[in-house]
């Protein structure tokens, strides 16, 4: 074998084994069960950094991606920072690590709703993707099939819609509260509807051997005279919270507390999130159950306004009102959380 060939092979093997000690990590629990890689974390004009989270049980080569606002760019950026080095991949070609992770490790997409800041990356990476299911509520899958992968806005990448279609993505309609096993994996997922302006959004519970991560797409606060979707969600996950099996909640806070009620566009402010988490504590049977609960805060709006640091601003407002001992972390792009 020529020398440079050997060298390439050695480099590739070294790359595969890298990680463990060397892979950068932003937060690590002492006994982590899941890895969360933030591929994109903002909303608004941050078109290289929009909601997308890879969730993987540690020690496995099985992951799901929760929303895909920024997908290919998010994976490449994570690769460049060495964030993906821990994922056990099978090197088999000229693919970079980001490509291996997309094609081998990611087993499904969980799409909360079809707003562009949650699906743009899915659309753009789809020509290079391997076949996968898209788990979503039927309303969301119908919008993806009719209005996005419809042969006009983009090719027909799903298994519904006009010919010619690739059928690369299989739409898996979910029934609220009923868990599904993700094909070709040991991951279970359950969906619940959320209210988000004029559309239905979704919360996904991802479970592996009974341990869980909860991801919420965009949601508005419950109102006394309106839908109580967050309250219903909290009732469903309360047993996991009490048993310390819920390792993190990923949830959006889009605007600071100063945003007027009529300009929320179905989103949350820090005070809304805090009120809802107090409700979770109540549903669990006492605030002590949620002390130390980790909430990874996503979806802070980026605008063209000069000055101000909306992420720090929102973090400060969350901490100022945090009389319930929640462990808030502001999500950063290309960061890795072991929870
Ligand atoms: Zn939205």
From TrEMBL:
PROSITE patterns: PDEASE_II (PS00607). Gene3D superfamilies: Ribonuclease Z/Hydroxyacylglutathione hydrolase-like. This is 3',5'-cyclic-nucleotide phosphodiesterase. It comes from the Bacteria. The lineage of its organism: Bacteria, Pseudomonadati, Pseudomonadota, Alphaproteobacteria, Acetobacterales. Pfam families: PDEase_II. PANTHER family: 3',5'-CYCLIC-NUCLEOTIDE PHOSPHODIESTERASE 1 (PTHR28283). Keywords: cAMP, Hydrolase. The keyword Ribosomal protein does not apply. InterPro entries: cAMP-PdiesteraseII_CS, Pdiesterase2, RibonucZ/Hydroxyglut_hydro. Belongs to the cyclic nucleotide phosphodiesterase class-II family. The keyword Coiled coil does not apply.
């Amino acid at each position: 074998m020529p020398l440079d060939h050997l060298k390439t092979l050695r480099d590739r093997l070294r790359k595969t084994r890298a990680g463990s000690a060397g892979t950068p990590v932003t937060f690590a629990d002492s006994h982590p069960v899941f890895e969360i890689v933030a591929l994109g974390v903002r909303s608004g004009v941050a078109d290289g950094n929009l909601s997308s989270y890879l969730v993987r049980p540690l020690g496995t080569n099985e992951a799901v991606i929760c929303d895909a606002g920024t997908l290919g760019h998010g994976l490449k950026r994570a690769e460049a920072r060495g964030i993906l080095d821990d994922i056990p991949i099978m090197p088999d070609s000229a693919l970079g690590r980001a490509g291996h992770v997309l094609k081998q490790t990611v087993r499904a997409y969980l799409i909360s709703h079809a707003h562009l800041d949650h699906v743009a990356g899915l659309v753009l990476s789809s020509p290079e993707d391997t076949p996968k299911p898209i788990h979503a509520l039927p309303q969301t899958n119908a919008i993806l099939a009719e209005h996005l992968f419809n042969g006009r806005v983009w090719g027909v990448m799903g298994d519904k819609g006009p010919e010619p279609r690739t059928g690369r993505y299989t739409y898996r309609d979910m029934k609220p509260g009923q868990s599904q096993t993700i094909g070709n994996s040991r991951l279970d997922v359950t969906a619940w509807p959320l209210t988000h302006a004029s559309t239905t959004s979704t919360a996904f519970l991802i479970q592996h051997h009974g341990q869980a991560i909860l991801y919420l797409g965009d949601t508005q606060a419950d109102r006394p005279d309106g839908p109580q979707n967050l309250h219903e969600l909290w009732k469903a996950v309360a047993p996991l919270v009490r048993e310390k099996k819920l390792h993190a909640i990923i949830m959006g806070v889009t605007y600071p507390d100063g945003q007027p009620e009529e300009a929320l566009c179905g989103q949350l402010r820090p005070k809304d999130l805090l009120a809802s988490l107090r409700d979770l504590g109540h549903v669990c049977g006492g605030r002590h159950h949620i002390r130390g609960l980790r909430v990874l805060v996503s979806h802070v709006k980026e605008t063209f306004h000069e000055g101000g640091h909306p992420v720090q601003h929102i973090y400060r407002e969350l901490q100022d009102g945090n009389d319930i001992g929640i462990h808030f972390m502001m999500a950063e792009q290309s960061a890795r959380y072991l929870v």
